[in-house]
Amino acid sequence: MDASPPVETKNGQKQRRRSWLIYLALALICVACWGIRQWPARDWWNGLWYQASDRAAAIAESLDLTDTGRRILAATRPAVELRDDFNTHCDSHRVEISLLGCYTSGRIYVYEITQPELVDSNKVTMAHELLHAAWERMSNRDHQNIAELLEQVKIKNSAWFDEELALYSDSDKIEEAWARAGTKLADLSDELEAYYREYFNNRQTIVSYYEHYQAPFLALREKNENLYNKIIATRDEVVLEKESYLNKVASLDRQIGDFNDCANTMGCFKNDEEFQLARSELIAEQERLDRERITLNEKIDENNT
């Protein structure tokens, strides 16, 4: 008797179809989990429900961001905050570094500046923190390429680099240089500009915001430097004038001593007219030195003030 192949029952078909559906669902879940771990998908998800405040939205709009820049910024859910909330989020009580913003735990916080001549600092700060967020999303290879490009920039701007990064550790300097150069330096290499164009349609707009709000500080710095130079020059003048005055006082004291000795010596002065003339000259010199002393003290007081 010939053997016949077994006939699959309806229950068996259903069970096999259910197994395939389970495998498919597991595969889709794995793909979804892998995708959500990639930055574009994570950014899309994190920014999906973000509702910017009017102030944050206005600042973001002023940055003229690319699609990538807008996606990353929305994912960071930027907040523009006043002192207490900002200090809580950014720990800006660190005495060694003055903070106007921070990127921490995946979010951007900007300290709100309201003075009309300084409001552009809010824009520069948000752009700066956006570049920190972009740095986090880059590959190690990109980090290395940018580090090499920034070294070339440093050759032309060594004093600027030293001043801007003086308070940062070696491990933080490259990332900080990336964020600062991108928002403050107008002249960068084409290779470096290509990286910044991933996020800004026109990076020079950000630099112009920086230069605008820095203008009052630069004017104040120039005024302070001029005042400092004037103080030092006046101080040096006072030292010389005081030395000259004391020499004149000592000379006058000797002349007064000689006059008194002569007045007490019979026949030293030939007549009363000669005595009175010598006496008048000493009094006049004494009065002139008193005026010089008053002028010198006034100059000292003014310079001290």
List the helices and strands and how they pair.
Blueprint: H1 10-36, H2 39-47, H3 54-62, H4 67-76, E1 79-81, H5 83-90, E2 101-104, E3 107-111, H6 120-137, H7 140-156, H8 158-165, H9 170-184, H10 190-196, H11 203-263, H12 272-304
Helix pairs in contact: 2-4, 6-9, 6-11, 7-8, 7-9, 11-12
Please list the strands of the largest sheet in the order they lie side by side.
1-3-2
SSE arrangement, N to C:
HHHHEHEEHHHHHHH
- What is the percentage of strand-forming residues? under 5%
Number of helices: 12
Quaternary organisation of the protein chains: single chain
Class from helix and strand fractions: mainly alpha
Number of strands: 3
Q: Helix coverage percent of residues?
A: over 70%
- How is the biggest beta sheet arranged? 3 strands, mixed
Mean pLDDT: 85
Describe this structure in words.
- α7 (140-156) crosses α8 and α7 (140-156) packs across α9 (170-184).
- The chain has 12 helices and 3 strands.
- It has 305 residues and is mostly helical.
- The protein has a 3-stranded mixed beta sheet with strand order 1-3-2.
Identify the notable features of this structure and list them briefly:
single chain, 305 residues, mainly alpha, 12 helices
Quick overview of this protein structure:
With 305 residues, the protein is mainly alpha-helical. It has twelve helices and three strands.
